[in-house]
């Protein structure tokens, strides 16, 4: 697992198009509204969706689940 992670940490992905663009926009929106989201009772569910999006991005880019 560590060997797989080390291969991912050094790969740049553009955030402007396709799956990377979608994930980038979503995560940027979360970061921009972090103060408001911290007190939102549904923030936990939103963070789970963020993790799902990141996993989907990795799978789409590298074929890894």
Q: How many helical elements?
A: 4
Distance between the termini: 12 Å
In N-to-C order, the SSE pattern is HHHH
Q: Give the count of structural domains.
A: 1
**From the helix content, strand content and strand pairing, which structural class follows?**
mainly alpha
Q: DSSP strand (E) fraction? A: under 5%
Description:
This protein has 65 residues and is mainly alpha-helical. The chain has one domain. It contains 4 helices and no strands. The protein has helices spanning 2-8, 18-32, 34-38, 43-62. Helix 2 packs antiparallel against helix 4 (43-62). The longest helix has 20 residues, at 43-62. It is globular, with a radius of gyration of 13 Å. The N and C termini lie close together (12 Å). The mean pLDDT is 84.
Distinctive features:
65 residues; mainly alpha; 4 helices; 72% helix; 0% strand; globular
Question: What is this structure, in a nutshell?
Answer:
The protein has helices spanning 2-8, 18-32, 34-38, 43-62.
Topology:
Elements: H1 2-8, H2 18-32, H3 34-38, H4 43-62
Helix pairs in contact: 2-4
């Amino acid at each position: 697992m560590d060997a797989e992670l080390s291969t991912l940490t050094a790969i740049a992905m553009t955030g402007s198009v396709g799956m990377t663009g979608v994930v980038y926009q979503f995560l940027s929106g979360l970061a921009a509204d972090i103060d408001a989201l911290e007190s939102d009772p549904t923030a936990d569910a939103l963070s789970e969706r963020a993790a799902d999006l990141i996993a989907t991005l990795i799978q789409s880019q590298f074929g890894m689940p």
